[in-house]
Every structure is written in C-alpha cells, then in structure tokens.
Queue: 4 jobs
Job 1
Amino acid sequence: MARTLVMLVHFRNRPSKLQFLSKILDFFSLCAFAVMHYLNFIKMTNIGKLLEFWLTLLIYLYVVFLDLAKAFDKVPHKRLLEKLNKHGIGGKLLSVIGNWLSNRKQRVCIKGRWSKCITVWSGVPQGSVLGPLLFLIFINDLEEDINSNILKFADDTKIFKEVRCSTDCRQLQADLDKLVLWAQKWHMVFNVDKCKVMHVGN
C-alpha cells in the first residue's frame, strides 16, 4: 500500500506570505529529492527492462540511445514557465519559480583571477534539488505521439521497437523524426555523437 508523505509546518506567529511561499518551496524540494532517488533506481533498471522485454518475447529489437546536448543548461526559462503553467502551477508559486530562475549571473575564477559576470538566460540550476524536477517537467511531453517504447532518465532517452520488416524501420525513423521536431520546437539539441544504435537479436 502506498504511503503518503505529509509535512507539518509550525509557526510561532502568523506566517507572512513570504514565509509561507518559502515553506511551499521547501516542500517541493523535499518531493524532488525523493523523486530523484526513485529515478536513480529506475536508471539502474532501464537496461534490465530492455533485456527482459527482449527475452520475454524473443524478438528482433532495435534500441536507439539518445542524449540531449547540455540539456540542463539549455532549458529556456520562458518555455519552462509556460509548461509549468500548463501543468497547473500558476499564481504566486509560478512567480516565485520565475524569480528564482531569472536574473542569474555567473563568473569563473582561475588562479585567483575572476572573469566578468554574465547573465544566464537559460538552464535550470545544477546542484539544486528543484532544478532536476523542473527539467523532468520540461521533458515530460517528449514521448507524445511516439509509437515506439521510450525510457527516460534526465537527459538520457532510450527509444526501442521490434523491427522485423521495412515498415517497422520506417515507423521507428518516423518516431526519431518526431523527437527531433520536439527538440527544435523547445530549443533543445540532441548530441548526435553520443547517440548510438543497438541491435538485440540474431
């Protein structure tokens, strides 16, 4: 039976709106931490699922390993907020997330010498708990209208299909073309050098 995660927050005095929103973000960060641990387990078992799928059906299976180039750094903020709004996240919470993403600057230090600060226009902050969760929401619709099977973990995607004839090949290629169109629509790019094809069967 599934267990429900409950967070109880106690305030000595009546909380301000800022305190309340801060606690809401803490709650989402806690949820994101739990989700990432679960997805780490999924990553470890994805290959096993592919092999189990093949061994059960004894089929000719083609697996295409896809990789989004600099995925966490390329997420456009406006389009991410658009997707969050479509998922029902709006109002002040959406504004807080928008403020958290915007007006970020970065610089590098080499041997004690600092570069100039530059504005960061895209990407979700790595090293944060909320950042990976926002990325998962951003790529949540990646497999829409895809007929082949898909397994996802962060910026790594595996698409696989039973291929026995030229029609199956064309269908798999059509799904790959749809993924490319998705990437173009949402300003993402697949790293072709890291994309590989694996054939499972005779």
Note: Residues 1-13, 33-39 have pLDDT under 50 and may be disordered.
Job 2
Amino acid sequence: MWMEERCIEIEHLQDKHDLFNTHKKIKEVTGELRKRSYTALCNDDNKLITNPIEEEEVWTKYIENLFKDNDTFQLTTREREPSPPIIKDEIVRALKEIKTGKAAGPDGIYPEILKLINTDNIVILVELFNNIYQAGELPKDWLKSIFIPIPKKSNARKCEQFRLISLMSQTLKLYLKIIHRRIYRKCEADVGVEQFGFRPGLGTRDALFSLSVLLQKCRDQGKDVFICFIDYAKAFDCVKHSELMAILDAKGLDNNDLQILFYLYRHQVASVRLENGLTTETPINRGVRQGCVLSPLLFNDYSESIFQKSLEHANEGIKINGKPLSNIRYADDTAVLADSAEDLQLLLNRLTREENDLGMKINTTKTKVMVISRNPNLQANITIYGKPIEQVARFKYLGCWLTDNLDPDLEIRTRIEMARATFLKMKTLLADRSLRITTRLRFVKCYVYSVLLYGVEAWTMKVSTMNRLEAFEMWIYRRMLRISWVDHVTNDEVLRRMGEDRKLLTLIKRRKTAYLGHISRHQRYELPKLIMEGKIEGRRGPGRRQCSWLKNIRDWTGLDSHTLLRTAQDRTQFAEIVANLR
C-alpha cells in the first residue's frame, strides 16, 4: 500500500538520523515540495525585466561578479610517492553509491545509465579514469556546469536572493566519488571537534545539544555568556582556489589528486538555466560548487583553516576543565562564545582579519548577538567592520529557537504548532475512516511526529511542557476519530477507540535517554561528552536549581548522574533502562 511504503521510507531515514532527507520526504507528501513557478527579476532600477535578452545579461553579469577572482594561481606540489592507479573495485563501489532519480548534467547522462554498466564493461571505465588520473586533465564536457537558481524566499526579485545549485556531469560525479574516498582521511583528520557539519554520525541535533547544555551549565554556575551568531555572505561561493589548494597541499594529498582538483577548479565554466534557455558560459574562478560531492569536505577544511589560524592561541571563550571553547559550528552556521563582551570582541576581530584574507565576509545585517546572564540589562555592544551588531532576546539557530533566559517553552510551542499545521494539511487522509486506524497512526508517527520532534534530544522538559505535549497527542487522536469537543468524550474513551496508550511522552523520554548513551559510548561525540561531563568555572548562586537537561533523565530513571554515566557505558544494561521508561 502507498501509505505503508512511504512510512517505511521515513522510518528507514529516521533510523539513520538523516534529518535532511526525512523532512524532504515529509514535504513531498504534504505538498510543500513543489516545482517552483518562474520568478521575474528586477533590474537595478527595481523594474521588472520582461525581455529575455536583458534577463540573460543580468544573470551573466551577476555570475561574473560573484565568481570573479584576479588571483591567477599555479599549483606547486611537493615530492611525494606516486599515486596508486584507480582499480576496478573503487569504481564498482562508487557505482553502488550513486543515487538514482537525479537530474542529468550538461552531457545528458543520467545516473541510471551508469548503473547499467555491467562488470565486463567496467574495465573500459578503469582505463578511461586512469588515463585522466595520470594526465591530470579532465575532459572539457566534465568542466561544464549548469546553475539552477532556487529562490531563497517566495518573492525573490534579485539574483542574490537565489541559491545556485550546480548540475554537473554524472560521470564526473562518479569520478569525484573515487577522489573523495582517497582524500577523505587526510582532509578530515584536522577538522576540529567544534565542527558538526558534513561529518559522519554528527548533525544539527549534536550542535544544538552542545550549545543548549553548555548554556545551562554556565547559567547554573552564575557565568555570563556572550554569543555572536555569525551569518556569512555567500560562504560557499567565496572560497579562494589558491588558498584552498595550499591548504590541501599542506595536508599531504597525493600529487595526482591535487592535480585533478586544481584542473577542475582552474578551468570550470558554468551557465544559468532560465525559462528561455541557458546563459553564456562564464568562468568560475572562486567558490566550491553546491551539489558537488567534494564541496562539503573542501569547505570544512577551508573554514577550519580560518578558525585554526585566528583562534589557535586564543585563551578567550568558555573554559571547560580549564580549556577554552570559543565556537560551535555546523558548516558555516557559527556561534562564537565568550564570557565577557571584551573577549567576544577580540575573538571577532581576529576572525574578521583572517576571513578577509581568505575572501570570506560576514553579513552584519543578519549576524546577531545574545547575552545569557542573570543581569537582564547587560549589553554587549559588539561591532564588526565598525558596524554595531544587534543584540536580540531570541534567535533561531539551526532551525530551533534559543532565548536569553533559556526557556525551552518557545521552541516546543513552535514545534507543536508546526506539527499541527502538518497534520491539518493531511487531515483528509488521516481522518479517512475507510483507511485502517493502524495505518493512519503509523503515518502520523512518521510524518507529523518527525516535524514535532526535530531537535528533541536537546529539549529540556518542564511539567507544563509535558502536559502540553500530551494535550497535543490527544488533539491528534480526536481529529483522527472525528470527535468534536461538544461530544464530551473523555480521553480514556478516545484512547480505547484508538487502541493506544499515550506514547508521545514515552517516545521523547526514550530518545533523550538513548542519546545520553550514544554520547557516553562513542568517540565521535567528543565535544558533547566534554560539555556534559566537564567542569565550568564559576560559583552557584543561592536558591533552587533550575530544571536542566540531565535532571530530566535523572528524574525519569531514578538514578544519580554518576550512576547514569557509568551505566551508559554498558550498551545492553542501558538499553534495558531505556526500554523500561514510561
């Protein structure tokens, strides 16, 4: 059945904690992921462009200015051992990893065609790829990309209000998957624990958890926290190729791999797909391509270089076990932390100097400052490029609301209303009595609860919050059964008709507690574990302690912190504790 197939897809993605594709599937089903309607541009005089030739000129000029760089760099490599040739197994593995259903590049080849290549004919690819690998030059067709402009907002009228996604040759993608696997270990080795973006096993939930728990511990110790949420202007499009190649060379990449990357970025061209065709091809002299398998890895190395150079010997930040933590990042979404306004200003001054040298620029309009303090009148007065940065009482970081009083209610209320809106979009389907109640309930858990529980591992739950979540669960059940409030049906009767107990709160408890076990056992959660277990300098103030993330789990399990952390090391024993939560 169609509904059950969709549920299986969502459940598979949730098991992998793939939040991006989970919510993409949700939008497909709810109708939010639609093919965009064409948006007319405005010229410099804010007049709508109706002439296709003028529109092409505007886009061509924009692309030229965006990716223009006068740095004519040349690659100088060091003496290293010759790179091993590409073997058949590497190509077979890359073919298995290629995703189907993707658009063809300028050469018109779809990924499904590449997957039809049988074992006997792979030897032709082996020979072709090795000839390219040894020569260090890519075919001209592989160097062409097509930019698809995706509007960042519904009423986009300027070129800068669009995100450019690259369509490139699927054969090039296959080739770059092999290069990616070869360079991955060396590129990933030096990325700091503060970076959670584009890294295996890590995601937005880990960055949100780290920041939330850190702020709670600082509050409990009476330590002020000054945060600057940095927004970069066109971060992926401002990477300087000469600096990127120098960074990769310093990491010890093989000469053949470096030569391929150099040739790709030195000779690439792109055109923009418009309603009436393609624009003129334009050289791309800077930036990493959004849509390329290598871009996340290369961008992480580039941004890591900025932070290492600017903050390498910095003593500013929030000290955990005596060592300063000055930033938490998810790709280019950066939160810079300090315990005083002066230290935060010093950190930002160092960052801006280094970023300017590497072509990155902070968007001062979207960058915000927040102060977490017992003194509600404390002002930061931070400036970047001589411009004052706005101080806010709340900020949406990685899709979740953070407030200066650390009240979790705003975020949870927002999530409930987003989940309610998702349910109402699908109400006709979910309240259809011709469908089995078990199937509809499974659909609710996959699609509605996925929206509700984004970032749930970082939530801190109060009694009022739990009551609100249980009320929302009953709201869903009543609408699935088409029970009106005038019918005066009790909650117990609703649950009897559903054949269900209240399970939403139990699900939240289990997910939060299970996440504690993951943090305690896995090495990749080094920073979240340090924040959770480490000591923050400061002194606790008088009065009762406020509710915290770890206190929730202590209350639910009946165990103290020491016993919890010790038990979490034993997967089997801790899984039993999680399963017994009610």
Note: The longest strand covers residues 144-151.
Job 3
Amino acid sequence: MKKLLLFFLFVSFLFAQNRILIDENYDDWNDVPNLHEDPSGDNSSGTFDFKTMWVTNDDDYLYIRIQTTQKITLVDNNYMTIFIDTDNNSGTGKSVNGIGAELQYTFGTRSGKAFLSVETNIEYDDIGFVGAPTFSGNDFEFVIRRDSRISGADLFQSSTIKIVMAGYTSSSLTDYYDKTPDTGGFEYTFQSGQVDPPPTYSIGKTNAGYLRIMAYNVKQDGIINTDKTTEFSHIFRSIEPEIIGIVESYDASSQQVADRIEFFLPSGEGQNWYNKKEVSDIVLVSRFQIKQSFPIDSDVGHDASGAFLLDLRPKFDSDMLVIVAHPKCCSGDLNDEKRQNQFDAIMGFIRDAVNVGGSLTISPNIPIVIMGDMNLVGDVRQYQTLITGNIYYNGTYGEDFAPDWDGGNLDDAIPYVTNTGMTFTTNPGGYPPGRLDFVVYSGSVMEIVNSYIFDSGNLTNDQLSQFGLDAADTKVSDHLPVVVDFDLSPITGFKKKDESPKEFRLMQNYPNPFNPSTSIQFTIPVETQHAVSLRIFDILGKEIKTLLNKPMQPGEYEIEFNAEDLPSGVYYYRLIIGDFTQTKKMVLLR
C-alpha cells in the first residue's frame, strides 16, 4: 500500500497573526487596519476612482489590497500603477508625488521598472507578483516578494516604505484618472513576528472511502509525449486520482490518454481505466464506468465542454454527473461573449438534466462536479453563472435555475497551492500565476475533506523524497493539477462490505504490526442517532487523533489510519456508538 503522509505545518508563535490568503475572499483582511481611505469623487477625470487600501506583511511577502469604484481586470487592459519607495529616501529612485520610487509596476501590462543602481525594465516574475482574482472586479489582493533582487540589488532596502497608486489613462503614464494619496506617499513599516501556518492538506488520501478527483490541463497533448514520461509519472503516482478531467488533449484519443495513465498507475485485479473523449480536447479517465457522455453545445461554433455520467458502484451506491470544461481563452469582448455562451450552455445542460427535458436525465441527489481550465479572465458574470445558474443569454439557453439539489448555489472548492496560502493554478508565462482551473460541486450531497493545487516546486525536501518527486516536475505543463477529495457519505455512506451486519463490532486492524498505514473495520447493525466516534490513543491514554465523529447509516465500514507522523510503539483505537464501546490494541513498528 502506498504511504500516505498528512502534512500539518505548525509554528511556535511570538504573537499570533492571521495569514493573508490570496484566494478572492477578503475576510482574512478584517483584522488589518486600512492604510488609507481615499476621498470619494476626487478623481480628475473618467469614472476610475480609488477607494480603500490595506497593507500588511509576513517574512516573505508584502500584501496589498486595493478597492476601486470601476470594475477592471487586474492583470490586463488597465494602466493602474503602483510606486514604492523601498529605501524610504525621497532623494533616490524615480521622483513621483514627492517620494523616490525604486519600484514602478503597471498591473495591466504586467511590467514596470526598477530604479536601483541602474534603471531596469522588469516583468511580474522579477518581483514575485501574484494577484487575485483573474476576472473583473473592483476589489483585489496581491503580493510582492520581499526578497526580490533586481540587477544584483535587493529591492527592499528599508524596514519602512512609502506607496503611491495611480490610475493612468494610457501607457505613457502621464495623465491619470486618479491617484492616491494626492501628495506624498502612504508610509508603512514592516512588522516582525510569525503568522498562522498555511492551510493543511494531504498529498495522499487520508481515507480509502473518499473519492479523489483531479482536474488537469496537460498542455498540448503533453501527457502522451514520451519525453515527458518521468514528470507525468511522478505526478500521477503521487496523487493517485480516481476520476481525471483532462483538457488540451487535442490529437490524442481518450484510449491513448488512458493507456498512459495505466502506465503511470497500473490497474489491479478488477480495475480498469474507463475513458471517453468529447469535443476537441476534453477527455475523462475514470476508475468508474462511464454510462453516457455528451458534448455540450454552445451557440458560438466552439463547443468546449463534455458531460459524463459515471456509475460509482460498487464503491458508492450512486451515479455522478461530471462536466469537464475548457471555455474560450483570453481577454477581449469577443472572447468574453463566447465564454459566456459556453458557461450558459453548461448550466442549461445541468438544468435540463435535473428537471427532465434534455439529452440526459439524472437521478435526484446524485453528485454533480464541474471541473477544468475555465479561462476566467474576463467579466465576473461568467463566474457568477457557473456558481449561481444565472444564465445571461436566456433566449438561447433557457431560464435561470438553482443548480444545487437544495435550491442553492454550487460550491467552489478553492484549494490552495501546496505549502502556500495562494490559489493560483498556472505556472508563470505571459501572465502572472492565476486561478484558471476550478472544481465546482453540489455541496448539498458531497463534502470536501481535503484539497490542494499540486506544485512540486513548493514542496519541502522531505515531501519530495517521500513521494519520489523532483521539484521541477509540475513545470511539465503551464497549469498545475487541482486535487479534491470528497466524502460522499451524505448520500452513499462509506464503502460497505456487508449490507446486513448483525452486531456492533470493532475488528482487529490489518496489517498489525503496521508501518505506516493500517486498515480498521467496524460494523453498525441498526440505525442510531448517536455519532460514531473512532479515536486513536497512545499507551498513556492520550488522544492522538480523531478518525471519525459523525452519524452514520447501518453497514460495515473500513477506514485507513496513517501513522507516518508517529513514533513506533503501542497504540489503541476505540469505537464509541452511544452505549457501545470497544477498544483494541495495535503496534506501529518502524
């Protein structure tokens, strides 16, 4: 059995500070005082007007959040520019608004200048820029690396900096709509101390009863390129997905893709890699049988999505509707219109499948997942359609609808890049890293238990060694794999080996002794209102880990326990269901 390692990153705190997460959610900024509130209506022309700015930092990054009155796309088609006096000396750098700026960076052109020992043209990656969201809005967050070096010199040379923001009218950076502040610059002093650790995740599944889904843009048929076998093999063998949505498989057939995955992850007895291709580049490869598949037609002459109905049995007593999507890329009004049509078509297909009336009718309450490279680089309206079912072109694609079974919105997984608090899914290229790849799902019938964006370049040396990876592996594509583990017990329960157990029972773990993983089985004979609790204790009776604590249906269940982070020794596992309690001993032997 492959080793599973759950990575929890803990730190000892000098003082606790919330980590800022670059994830399109701004709740984590609530404890950060705003640096400046720009007066409303002080813009000199046009409708662009700055509102509020927040600034904070950790040891690695300068974090900035900025609000504007006008919707823009952060990294395209704008001339919003930041100037930073990084040595707090008005006599050095470029004179702007009374400060001496060592850094000038224009967001919409993804470029700028550094004024250190020499004047140097720079790109976004020279300063470690990452921002969110990629689609239009008027509230943005971004980072700049504090250890950036340009032309051999440190970018940040003082613990105190000054900042000016300007919204220019053109690339000449002369006339502006608004700037903030009106004179001088905002002063900010870097704070010391440690912050909350990044979000936790597990590269391997923590429970065999969960369902692992992976969305991956493999870049121009890269997965069948034999020159890239090593990198893709490392990635797939580390992740071990069960359902894989692949885009940019243009020339390869679905069977060719499945054969490659079979090479990476050979099938065991009774296993198979089922596969199907729809439209030009959409491939689904699955451990579960594909009952039906359909192209999703849009009215723009470019079909970009495929729908697949899977039979999850015998692992789960349910079908699943999976849509793999790759809408039109790039900015511009025409691309925006095509992309909106494609998202409207996806949601129209789901509406008809749920309500009877389309090419497919699905059973109530089955899981629904939409995944792929969504290319959300234009109007935010497309993202809103994906989540809410609010169709823009109703005359073509029909009425709006609530896409989840409970009458609400779909949920956005929003995983984080391994060992970071950021959500980008693209490797650096012509644009800064951004979140283009998504997994969206029906949260009323499925629950996320683990998720991450797999970037081997952000793994620790221990992680690379543990999973046999090279730090450069995920550079094999310009997109990173998105991995999500789901608990389907809201509709299906864990995998059941015996549908009619006769008694409450906790079985001896197997193998025993074990290193580092073992399987624990138990049975529930009757429906109970009590939570099912399965906990691990050391030899002194101290609780080490809670494996399970929730209501469950009658059946026989199997849970995998991973003890990679524990020393050798005797441990106990205890099952409690109401008045029933049973404890057994197990031995971890390194």
Note: The longest strand covers residues 61-72.
Job 4
Amino acid sequence: MITWLGAARSPVVRPSSSGLSLWFVLAGTLLIAAGCSSSAPPGSPETRTTSAGEKRPSKVKKESPELTAQVEAFCGACHAVPNPQSFPKSAWHEEVNKGFNFYYESGRSDLRPPAMVDVVEWFSSRAPKELQLPTHSELAEQPKVPFRLVRLLSADNLGQSHAAVASLAWRGLEKSDRPELIFCDMRTGGVGSLQPAEGKSSFRRLADLQNPCHAEVCDLDRDGISDLIVADLGSFLPQDHAKGRVVWLRGTAAGAYEPHVLLEGVGRVADVEPSDFDQDGDLDLVVAVFGWRKTGQVLVLENRSSEAAGFAFESHEIDPRHGAIHVPVADLDGNGLMDFAVLFSQEHESIELFLNEGGFRFRKEVVFAGGDPAHGSTGIQLVDFDQDGDLDLLATNGDMFDTFFVKPYHGIRWLENAGGFPWKDHFLAELPGVHKALAGDMDGDGDLDIVAAVSIPETTAGKQVRPDFDAVIWLEQVTPGQFERHGILKGHGRFPSMELADFDSDGDLDVAIGAMRDDDHTPSVGVFWNDRIGPRTGG
C-alpha cells in the first residue's frame, strides 16, 4: 500500500469521463498489401470467396490501367500503397497473401478486392529480383576520434544468459551521486543500473518485472526521492493481449524501489514519459501502447491524486491507433504547455506532434509520413540538431523483425523544424537494420554529430549480413548539414539500445550499447570509450 499524506491508498487508474476504458518493442507483422489490421490465418487461395459468396478468379490483364486502379484502391484503403521496390520478387506472394488475410479477417465488406493472383503479379512484376545492399568505402584517413570497445564485465549476463537490453539511459537516481546507466532487459525482466568502468563495473538490480522496455526517472510522489516509471510490454514476442503495464518503481529512503502498477489491462506498452500536461504541479504520464494488430493506443494518464483520494490517475485516450513506439515530451510550439511527439510504426509509419491545447485536448500535426507500410520505423530523438533555437527530430527506420529481409532503404534522417508542417526531410545515411541514432558532439568542435547502432535478427543475419556491414557508425558533421561516415564496429549488429554520455568524466562523450544477446560472445552492455582527449586510465 502507498501512503499519501497519511492516507493509505493503492494507486488506481479510473476510466475517463468520456467512457473510454483502459485497455519494445519488437515490431509486429507488417500489414502490407491490404489495408486492415487483424490476426490472419495461414493460407489464402488464388481465388477467394467474398463476403457475398462470389468466387473471384483473375479477369484483368496484368498491366492494365484498370488493374492498377483496383490495386491502388484496395491496397491503399487504410495505409499508403506499398512500394513494389520494398521487397524482392520472391517475397510478394507471401506479402500479398498476408494482406488479403488481414482484410478478410477484419470483417470489412466495403471494398471489392481484385483477384489475389493479379495483385501478386502486379507487385512482383514491378519488384527487383534482389534487393541491392549498399556498400561504403572507408576513408583513407583515420577518424580524429578513436573509440575502444570494452564489454562491461559485471553486466555480461545481467544475471541471465540471454539478455535483451531494450533501453539505456544515463540518469541521476541519487541526488548526491553521479548518474548511473539505467537498463531494461525486456527478455528476462530486469531493471537495473551500472557504473561503467574499464575494469569491473558496479552493478545493481533495481526490480524484476515482466518485460520492461523503457524506464524514465522522475519524482512522481514529490517526496524528494527519485522514482522510475517503467513501460512493461507484458510479453517478449509480439502478441495481442492485455498484459501491458505502466509500473511505478517508488524510491525509498533506504535506496530500494517498490513496484506499484499504475496501469494494466492494456496491450504491449512500449514507452511512458512523465510531464505536467495540465500545469497543476504534479506529473501526468503519456503512454505509448504499441499493442500489435488489434490492440494499441496512445493514452495520457491525468494525475488526480489528492489527500482524500490517494494516488490515482484518470485515463484519456488521445489516439486509438496501434504501433506507437516512442512518445518524447517537450514544449514544441512555445505556448508554455507540454506537448509530445509520437512515432507510429506498423502500417501507419508516421511521426506526429500532439500539441497541447489545454484540458487534455491535443491538436495533431504530421511532421513526417513514411509513404510505405514497409518503411520500418524504429526510433526518434527530439533535439535542436541545427542549433537554431527550436527542436528538430532524428529518426531511424530499420525494423527487420517483420519480414526478415536486409533492406537497403533503411537509414537515418534529420527532420528539420522549419516552422511549418511537415518538417523538412534530410536523408543522411543508409544503414540497414538501424534501431537507434543519437546526436552529440563527439569530436568537440561545437556542432552535433550522430552515432547510430544496428539490430538485425539472428535468423536474418545468418544468410544476408556481410563482414563489412556497419554495426555502429559515427556520422561526423564536418560542415553544416554535411557528414563523413565512420564505421566504428563491423559485422552483425544486434544492438537495439544506445546512450551517449561522458561516463568517465574526462570531457568527451562515450557510447554505450545494449544487445540482444544470443551467444556468449556478444556483451549485454558494452562501452566505446572516446579517447579524443586521451586514453582512460582510471576505473
């Protein structure tokens, strides 16, 4: 039980007044060639019975304008029409089959599907035989920033043999101490912290949950002791269920963390961020319920705690769509109210701002649309990248957990806030499988560079990943908007999480990476020590 100003209460989430009930990410199955999300049974014949019982064999010439119009109308009914160049010819039968199954299982009957054999032919005839993967020549000169990779020995297993470190964050937990590297292991359930060192790093386990995906530090109960708010997926693999949770790890004076569930009975929760959205002095929470196919939404939990009511929240559904991955918070329009951005994946593939108009009402503005349900969004960071006084976005698309193809169109982009919508799109680098990109001044020249890390599934890597693939790169900004690419780790990257910080207090930024650890050779957490100022000698 939680004591709130002397009243013993359990934290609860109330349904909102609108009657809406409450209900890491590994990305779900791609909703590709037809537009409706649902679970899908295996198999779909070339001739399919419609809701009216009509058999629909092929009757249209494969290259006719009529077929093109039918395919675009059917396959673009709920999302952008897939780009035939997104997959090789050999993949399109399976992708179209999945799309038809999604449609028939959705219960919709308002569309007239073309014959599946015609749709397969339409996509495969426009597709490449193979996807041509990028190659990058190395610069002749050595980069001016040398990095040394050191595995953190005390974190080698995080207590388990197969950790999956979904997030890393350099945050202060204790006011008197230096920050700690907080991690979430979404496979084994651990939430913990590390003090990186070249020798044995200090390590402590803070809590054991189900499948924690992201943790953020705040003081939720305003007692002067740091707490953690954790997004808990509820399952490691993507599923439609109601096991997702938001968990408050309440810090105690003794240094322990007591788990209290603030939200449950929802789909897979991928992110949660605290902020005072209504300016009443306490912290509310914005929640990305990724879900999967049938479940998912974006919620704001209004903090309605009081001495009489105890610790309580009221839920507001802000957006009913599934697939939300990240919800970073900032005042994005300068009106003094806190807003948030949402990265929507799945078939939506968009980045949208939710601008606070007061009273838990938010106006949506699209800053980027991927234009293809195979875009594969993986992450965003709010940052003033061009240092002009407003916030921009770094965005990555590198999801390979849907179709298991290494895709040449994956990469890193800077979305420049130029004062209107959408934001100006600058594609900076190709990087198949990229999951995380962060901005930081790695070389101390005053501008922001980018470090990015790759995560490619083992099932994909065995057939498609070459030894010269980049697993971690540094994009050095040499002049405004111009970059030199440096590969700082080659081969099979399996790093869904990363953090930049001066871990050794020597005046430059180091790089921590967290792994999907499937063997004894890959460290759960490793650090690239930045030796720009000089090799580190202390522990």
Note: The first strand starts at residue 2 and ends at 4.
